[in-house]
Amino acid sequence: MAGRHVSRVRALYKRVLQLHRVLPPDLKALGDRYVKDEFRRHKAVGSDEAQRFLQEWEGMSTNLDTCV
């Protein structure tokens, strides 16, 4: 289970950073820093909070994907 969770987190992290590539350079830098900080801050949270975190970021990823 933990391995699957780690893979899911990494895939989501990469996906969000990939979506930022189309942004203007200043917004890309801001967004990349924010994503990196958020994922780092939530690295050691409990299972329930981790699930909420992933759900929110997956929704954000979907929203960004539709805008691109």
Overview of the molecule:
The mean pLDDT is 92. The longest helix is centred in the last third of the chain and has 21 residues, at 47-67. With 68 residues, the chain is mainly alpha-helical. α1 (2-19) runs parallel beside α3. It has three helices and no strands. The termini are far apart. The protein has one domain. One of its GO terms (cellular component) is mitochondrial intermembrane space. Keywords: Chaperone, Mitochondrion, Transit peptide. Interacts with the iron-sulfur protein subunit within the SDH catalytic dimer. Pfam families: Complex1_LYR_2.
**What is the number of independent domains?**
1
Category from helices, strands and their pairing: mainly alpha
| Biggest beta sheet summary | none
Quick one: how many beta strands? 0
Note the overall shape: globular
Can you write the helix and strand succession as a string? HHH
Poorly predicted ranges: none
Mean pLDDT: 92
Helix content: over 70%
The first-to-last residue Cα distance is 32 Å
Instruction: Count every helix, treating DSSP H or I runs of 4 or more residues as helices.
Output: 3
Backbone CA Rg: 12 Å
Percent of residues in β-strands: under 5%
